[in-house]
Design brief:
494 residues, alpha/beta, Rossmann fold, five-stranded parallel β-sheet, 51% helix, elongated
C-alpha cells in the first residue's frame, strides 16, 4: 500500500491559502452537523516518527469547537492497562454520539511498533489485528465513522528531520534512541507497517496513506478526506438499513443447550446436607481465589435469570467465600444517558476486572438480547447483530486469559408468582417487587423464547451457559458454586 504513495506531491502556497480556508470553514460547519445528527467520529493518525503528526493535528483542530472533540496521545500502556484486555484502554476513549475523538497514534501501536520491539510472534500479531478489525467493525456497525491516516515519509526525509530536531536545544529531547534505531531499520519497519495497512484496510474502516514531505499538500488531502468521509457517513445515516441475519453459529463453536421448557426444576437438597456442602465448597473457592490472585488469572461470573429467581442470594453465597479485596459485585441497571451515547458494550468494557480479580455481574451485556429486544430499546438490526458481538466480546476476554462462567437462574412461572406474592405481603421485601416485574411476567412466553435463542446462540466452548435449577434456592446455590469451582480447577489443571 505504501508503494502507491506519491512522495513528490506538493501544493504551492498561493493555492494552499484559499483552498485551506474554504476546507476549514466546511469542516467547522460539518462538526455542528455531526453533533446534531449524533454521528460519532474517530480520526486516527499513524505514521513514521517525525512525519508531522502533531503539527497536522494542531492545524486540523484550529477551527473546531473544543467542546465537541478530544485529542488523545497513545503511548505505551501503563501497569494498570497491562492488567486489562488488549482493547480495554481503546474502548475507554471512544467518543459519545455527536462527538469526535482525534488520536495521535492509536491501537495500531499494538501491532506495528510493538510487533517489532516486543518481538511479537506473527501469530500473535495477526490475532491482535483480528481483534482490531472486530473492534472497528462493531463501532462502524453501530454508526461510528472511523477515518484512518498513515503519514508517510522516506527514510532519507525522516533522518533529515530527526537531525534538525536534534540540533535545536528546544526540540532535541524529542529525538530518542528508539527514533534513531527505527530510522536505521526503516526497511523492516516499512515491511511491518505495509503488512498492517494491507491486512486492516477494510471497507468499513479504510486506510488513507498520506505523503508528508510537503505539509501543505498533506493538510489539503487530510481535509478533503475528512470532509468527504463525514458527508458520506451523514448520508448513510439517512438511509434505512436491512436487518442483519443471525450468524453466530458461523464463527464460533457453540455448545448445544436444552430448551427451558425441558429443564427438570424438581431438584432439591435437604437443609443439613446443604449446610455441610455449602461450607465445604466455600472453603474450596476461598483457596482457589488465592491461587487465581497469585497467578493473575481474571474471572468473570455472569448472572442472568428470571425476576425473583434468587440471583441475589446466589451471588451472596459466592461472594462470602472470596477475599473482599479481590472481587467486585457489579449490579447492572438501565444504562445512563452517557452510556446510551456510546456503543452498548462500552459500559461493560469499563467494568472489567484486573488480572487476578473476580467480577460478578448481577445482570450483564445480555440485556440486549432480552429486555432491550422485547421492550423496543434497540432496533431489530441491533439485537440481531448482538449475537455475534457478544460472542466476539467474550472471545476477547477468553483470549486475554479470563475464566468466563455464565449462569441462567431458572424457575417456573408458578414459583415466580409465589415469590412475587411473598414479597408483596412481606413489608421488609416489598421494595424488591416493582410494576416492571409484573409487566415482564405478562410477557413470560416472549421472554422464554428470547432466552432460548440467547442460550442456543451464545453458549460457546470458551464461555458456555449453565442453567441453574432454582425452584429450590439451596440446590441452586450449591450448583453455582460447584460450576464455578470446576471452571477454575479446569483452568488451573487441578
Amino acid at each position: 500500500m505504501l508503494d502507491s504513495v506519491n512522495l513528490q506531491k506538493t501544493t504551492m502556497k498561493e493555492e494552499y491559502k484559499p483552498e485551506s480556508r474554504k476546507l476549514k470553514d466546511e469542516l467547522a460547519m460539518l462538526q455542528l452537523k455531526l453533533r446534531e445528527k449524533k454521528l460519532p467520529v474517530i480520526i486516527l493518525f499513524e505514521g513514521w516518527s517525525a512525519a508531522g503528526k502533531g503539527s497536522l493535528i494542531s492545524d486540523m483542530i484550529l477551527t473546531l469547537d473544543p467542546r465537541n472533540f478530544k485529542v488523545y496521545s497513545t503511548v505505551e500502556p501503563t501497569t494498570e492497562e497491562l492488567r486489562k484486555p488488549l482493547m480495554w484502554r481503546h474502548w475507554n476513549v471512544t467518543p459519545a454520539r455527536g462527538q469526535m475523538t482525534i488520536l495521535d497514534r492509536s491501537w495500531y501501536q499494538d501491532v506495528s511498533i510493538a510487533r517489532m520491539e516486543q518481538e511479537l510472534s506473527e501469530e500473535d500479531a495477526f490475532r491482535r489485528m483480528d481483534s482490531i478489525k472486530t473492534f472497528e467493525r462493531q463501532l462502524t456497525d453501530d454508526g461510528y465513522l472511523i477515518i484512518k491516516f498513515f503519514l508517510h515519509i522516506s527514510q532519507k526525509e525522516q533522518k533529515k528531520r530527526l537531525d534538525k530536531l536534534e540540533k535545536d536545544s528546544n526540540t532535541s529531547w524529542r529525538v530518542t534512541k528508539k527514533d534513531r534505531r527505527r530510522n536505521q531499520e526503516y526497511a523492516e519497519y516499512y515491511r511491518v507497517f505495509d503488512q498492517m495497512l494491507e491486512y486492516t484496510n477494510t471497507e468499513n474502516a479504510p486506510w488513507h496513506p498520506v505523503s508528508c514531505h510537503d505539509k501543505r499538500s498533506a493538510l489539503i488531502e487530510i481535509y478533503h478526506t475528512v470532509i468527504d468521509s463525514i458527508n458520506e457517513a451523514l448520508a448513510r445515516k439517512e438511509q434505512s438499513k436491512e436487518v442483519s441475519p443471525i450468524d453466530a453459529h458461523e464463527k464460533f463453536n457453540l455448545v448445544k443447550m436444552p430448551r427451558l421448557a425441558d429443564i427438570d426444576l424438581d431438584r432439591t437438597i435437604d437443609e443439613e446436607e446443604y449446610r455441610r456442602l455449602l461450607k465445604k465448597k466455600q472453603e474450596r473457592l476461598r483457596e482457589l481465589h488465592n491461587e487465581l490472585y497469585r497467578k493473575k488469572i481474571p474471572v468473570i461470573v455472569c448472572y442472568e435469570g428470571w425476576d425473583a429467581a434468587g440471583k441475589g442470594g446466589n451471588i451472596k453465597r459466592v461472594a462470602a467465600a472470596l477475599d473482599p479485596r479481590g472481587y467486585e459485585a457489579i449490579p447492572i441497571a438501565a444504562p445512563s444517558s452517557e452510556e446510551l451515547a456510546h456503543h452498548h458494550l462500552w459500559r461493560f468494557w469499563k467494568r472489567l476486572p484486573k488480572t487476578g480479580h473476580i467480577a460478578i455481574f448481577d445482570r450483564t451485556w445480555y440485556g440486549r438480547l432480552m429486555v432491550e429486544r422485547l421492550e423496543g430499546f434497540c432496533s431489530e438490526d441491533d439485537w440481531h447483530r448482538a449475537f455475534t458481538e457478544l460472542n466476539e466480546f467474550e472471545q476477547e476476554l477468553h483470549d486475554w486469559g479470563a475464566i468466563i462462567v455464565k449462569f441462567w437462574i431458572h424457575i417456573d412461572k408458578d414459583e415466580q408468582y409465589r415469590r412475587f406474592m411473598d414479597r408483596q405481603n412481606t413489608p421488609s421485601k416489598q421494595w424488591k417487587l416493582t410494576d416492571e416485574d409484573w409487566r415482564n411476567r405478562e410477557k413470560w412466553d416472549l421472554y422464554e423464547e428470547a432466552v432460548d435463542d440467547m442460550l442456543q446462540l451464545t453458549s460457546t466452548d470458551f464461555a458456555p451457559w449453565t442453567i441453574i435449577e432454582s425452584n429450590d434456592k439451596k440446590f441452586a446455590r450449591l450448583k453455582a458454586l460447584t460450576t464455578l469451582i470446576d471452571a477454575i480447577e479446569n483452568r488451573l489443571g487441578k
